[in-house]
Amino acid sequence: MLSNAEITDIFKVTGTFMEGHFRLSSGLHSALYIEKFRVLEHPQYTEILCRELAARFLGEGVTVVVGPAVGGVIIAYEVARHLKARSIFCEREENTMALRRGFSLLPLDRVLVVEDIVTTGGSAKEVLEVVARSGASICGVGLLVDRSNGRVNLGHRTEALLSMDTTTYDPSSCPLCQQGLPLVKPGSKQLSL
User: Fold this and answer.
1) Total domains in the fold of the chain
2) Domain hosting residue 128, numbered range
3) Is 21 in contact with 129 (CB distance < 8 Å)?
4) Longest C-alpha distance within the chain, in Å?
5) pTM for this structure?
6) What is the tens place of the pLDDT at every residue in 11-40?
7) Percentage of the chain lying above the pLDDT 90 cut
8) Radius of gyration of the chain (CA)
9) Angle at 111 between CA 159 and CA 131, to 5 degrees
10) Angle in degrees, 0-180, between the axes of helices 43-55 and 71-83, rounded to the nearest 10
11) Is the Cβ–Cβ distance between 12 and 38 less than 8 Å?
12) What is the mean pLDDT of residues 78-101?
């Protein structure tokens, strides 16, 4: 089992941790951003992290690993490879998570939902709803990083490789905005305040 220090070292070596003033996909602001694609661009580190995540669910009889597009696709594939399971993903269809591209789940499937980073758990909860509607059994949720440090309840056994207590701010009361720090939405151009 990897230690928190070993996992943190992987994220540091790959430049995954970024400091500044960021707008997260949840809409909240934060001084810390975790750019998952910095670690996912290194197959050797992705393999190590996903093997660790898979190990936490060995013996659960997982038949399918499901992640949300985009970051969850790579994670789902690599975790499924280690569990010798199928890998599929959900993506947005008219603002709602759905299984597309011919993907389906059967009531006999035992599903592990994986997600890269959870702050509020919104995307993970949407994927869990898709799985629940299919009638398949949910074995649990595997996360690379839990930014809520366990405060987000996904309603199922949840294993995070790294739990962090990172402060997030509502945009209306963000001290970083009040300081006039430039707001960045990672993956896009700088936003105007």
Assistant:
1) 1
2) 4-191
3) no
4) 54
5) 0.87
6) 999 999 999 999 988 889 999 988 889 999
7) 76
8) 17
9) 105
10) 60
11) no
12) 95
- List, edge to edge, every strand of the sheet that includes 29-34: 168-169, 29-34, 17-23, 183-184, 190-191
What 8-state DSSP symbol labels residue 94?
T
Q: What is the DSSP string of 6-62?
A: HHHHHHHHTT-EEEEEEE-TTS-EEEEEE-HHHHHT-HHHHHHHHHHHHHTTTTS--
- The confidence score (pLDDT) of residue 190 equals 44
Backbone φ and ψ of 37, nearest 5° = -70, -20
Give start and end residues of each alpha helix (H) in 56-105.
71-83
- Using the predicted structure, report yes or no on whether residue 136 has a pLDDT greater than 70: yes
Q: What is the mean pLDDT of the chain?
A: 92
pLDDT digits (tens, 9 = 90+) for 35-73: 889 999 999 999 999 999 999 999 999 999 999 998 899
Q: Residue with structure tokens 């591209």?
A: 101
Please provide residue 29's backbone torsions phi and psi, each rounded to the nearest 5 degrees. Answer: -105, 155
Q: Are 173 and 192 in contact (CB under 8 A)?
A: no
By three-state DSSP, how is residue 166 classified?
A: coil
CATH at residue 92:
3.40.50.2020
Phi/psi region, residue 136 (left: phi>0; alpha: psi -120 to 50; beta: rest), is beta
Tokens of 70: 């985009």
